[in-house]
Amino acid sequence: MDQTAAANVQPAKSAKRRRFAPYRKNWSGYMFLVPAAALFVLFLWVPIIKGVVYSFYDIDFVNGNTYVGFDNYKTVFNDSEVGVSVKNTLYYMALCLLIGFWVPILFAIAISEIRRFQGIFRVAAYLPNVIPVVVLYGLWRWIYDPVGPINAFLGKLGADQILFMTDTRWSMVSLVIMETWQQFGSGMLIYLAAVLSIPKDWYEAAEIDGAGIWARVRHITLPSIKGLIMLMLIMQLIATSQGYQSQLAMLDGGPLNATLTYGLKIVKYAFTRLDYGVASAMGVLMFLVLGGLAVVQFRMQNRGGN
C-alpha cells in the first residue's frame, strides 16, 4: 500500500510542477509588475476601502474619529441640495449625450472621407485637447461674456443678448458646449481609427454599385463601428456622472445651483464644510452606481469580443 501511495504521489507532484513551470520560468518578468500593482492597490483600492470605512464615521483629525453608523447616509438623503445635484447631473449627462456624443463620430466619418490633407484635419481637430484648462476657462469666459464676441454678433443681427453664465436656462448648456469643443478630438481619433480599419473593398464595391456617401455611412460605416459606439456610450456616461471641474471653476455650482452636480456637491462637503464622513458616504453611493455601469460595460465589451 505504501509503494502504491508513493507511486501516486510522484505523478501528482510532476503534474503540479508542470502547471507552475511557466510561472517559475517567467518569475523575473512578473517581478516588474509588482511596483505597478503596489501603486494600483495603494492609490486606488486603499482609498476606496478607507472611503467606505469613513462613511460610517464623523471624521475629526484633531479629536479623533467617532463612529456614527448610518447617520452620514441619512444626512445625504435628507439634504435637499443632493436631490438637486442628482437632477443636475442627469441633465448634464443628457446634454453631453445629445450635444457632445455624436460630434466625434461625425468628425471621424467626415475626415475619413477626405482624400487629401487628412493629417492636417486630424491635428486641427485634436488641438483643443492640448489647451490648458486655465487658459480654456479664461477663453470661454470671454466668449460667453455679455460684451463678448457671441453677444456682439447677436447684437449686429438685432437679436437679444444671451446671458450664458447667469441665466439658469443657458448655464449648463454653455458648459457642455465648451467641454465638447475641448474634448471631442480624443474621441474622434478613436472613432477614426475604427473607421479606417474597415476594409476598403467594401466601400469600393458600394461605389461601383452607385452608393453615395450617406448610403456608405449608413450601411457600412455605422454598422461596422456599432460595438465601439456602445462601448464609448457607457464610458461617457461613467465619465460625465463624475463631472464637476468646469462647474466648479466657471460657476461654482451657480447660478441658483443650476450647475451643482453630484460630484461638485461631494467636493463642497469635503473641502468647504470639511465634513469628510458625509462626502465619503456620497462617494460610496456613487461608487455603487458606477460599479453597476462598469459591469454593463464589461459585459458589452466581452460580447463585442466574442
TrEMBL record:
PROSITE patterns: ABC_TM1 (PS50928). Keywords: Cell membrane, Membrane, Transmembrane, Transmembrane helix, Transport. The keyword Membrane applies. The keyword Cell membrane applies. The chain crosses the membrane at residues 27-48, 90-111, 123-143, 180-199, 220-239, 276-296. Residues 86-297 form the ABC transmembrane type-1 domain. It comes from the Bacteria. Signal peptide: none annotated. Pfam families: BPD_transp_1 (PF00528). Coiled coil: none annotated. Belongs to the binding-protein-dependent transport system permease family. This is Sugar ABC transporter permease.
